[in-house]
Design brief:
By secondary structure, the chain is of the alpha/beta class. The chain has one helix and 14 strands.
Length: 183
């Protein structure tokens, strides 16, 4: 089989007897050295640009001294550590642009609501709040219109300071025995 992807090469040097179909085994033609090196360079370039659609498995740490760009999905097993005083940028989008098949633990910034939100397995919920405590935690602010349906958690109560408008098509569900107080 012609080896034209890096993943097809063997970690045992003696097992690598061709590059892109060019014989590099014992007794090869001298001109095959140049042709094989050229083919290897093209294979490495295709790998670097992603043109070969080959996977990369790393058995150690990844260190990026500049930018690391991942196009598509990235799956990490284990913990991610950010040793920086900088920031992490989460996805930003409108309510209409939410993931169509969300998974528990997804986090994003909702530009319609101007708040961070997370998916809890049932619905998107606000994380913290862009409103919330001001003036040293003495004053709490809330929006005056509700544009996303919401169910108050069982065993919890809620309050808002109004007037409050519940937009058309939006519902607030208050479980039996719970309260939502509007002051």
């Amino acid at each position: 089989m012609a080896k034209n992807k890096i993943s097809q090469f063997d970690s045992t040097a003696a097992n690598n007897t061709d590059i892109d179909g060019i014989n590099i085994g014992e007794g090869m033609l001298p001109s095959n050295v140049n042709n094989a090196l050229r083919a290897l360079m093209a294979t490495i370039k295709d790998f670097q640009t992603g043109a070969d659609n080959d996977d990369l498995t790393i058995g150690g740490n990844i260190t990026a001294n500049n930018n690391l760009t991942v196009t598509g999905n990235a799956t990490l097993s284990g913990n991610a550590t950010f040793n920086t005083t900088g920031s992490i940028k989460v996805p930003v989008g409108t309510t209409a642009q939410r993931n169509g098949t969300p998974e528990i633990g997804m986090i994003r910034f909702n530009s319609t609501l101007n708040d961070y939100e997370g998916y809890n397995g049932t619905e998107w919920v606000i994380i913290g709040s862009g409103a919330g405590a001001v003036a040293g935690g003495v004053i709490y602010e809330n929006e005056t219109a509700i544009d996303t349906s919401y169910t108050i958690s069982t065993g919890k109560n809620g309050f808002s300071v109004g007037p409050i408008t519940v937009n058309s098509g939006v519902s607030i569900t208050i479980p039996s025995g719970q309260r939502w107080v509007i002051l």
